[in-house]
Amino acid sequence: MGKGIIGSFFGRGKNERKIDGYQNHTERSSVTEPRVIECSSCGAKNLIISNSVDKCEYCGSPLIYIEDAKTVPSAATAKTENAMKKNSESSNPANAYTLTTGFYTAGIDIPVGTCNVTAISGSGNLHSSDHGINEVFGIERGYVSSFKGLKLRKDVSLIIRDALTIKIVYKSVDSGFSGRTYDMSGEIDISTGNYIVGTDFEVGTYNIVAVSGSGNLHSSDAYVNEVVGLEDGDVNEIKNVYLSEGSKLTLRDGLSIKLVPEVVK
Q1: Which end of the chain is more exposed for a tag (fewer CB within 10 A), N or C?
Q2: The pLDDT value given to residue 52
């Protein structure tokens, strides 16, 4: 997160068709009950009643069906290929980004514009520094799994907490982003204890990466409060964390991490 930016914290209709070679040419429904098709592009789960639905409800990418044994394979293949060709421009994978735990500033880490957001794995809080979104996101029942039309203005930070992974697909891009470079050779290894930013290491933006153990990682400026480690359910890495002058970074429970500093341009 850039210096000075502060953020606290699933139609349907029946479609019947005749299948060549089916005994007595009896007509039957191609889908007998609703089913969920996972989009191969963004990972969103679409509730489908009819195979005539070609597009993902969330990102517009073509849905790929696994037909039953009595469906003519060539017809299914042609349907998928046509759908993919038809939607290749609208899905625009160049404007899709997969984001994990961390801080992402529009204009620096991601484009400025309007996007749809989909949970890919895990669960956790998702919010923006301008309060455009503040939801408990996740892939399981009970969590919010998607959010449409999120406006990300320049310098607004999108903040992902806990072990949550999302995908953002832009509907429109107002401007691009500069990106960050990190100095792997300048990484700092620290273990359980208390550290003062500006005294024990320099003020700046870091990627925080788990090295060993599992425990709470907390900063007094409230930017970071996560269970970090290498165990299932732990946050393995927190990206683009700004550590401010005089704040205290605390590691507990035998946790060891490395701080990878951003290259200041």
Answers
A1: C
A2: 62
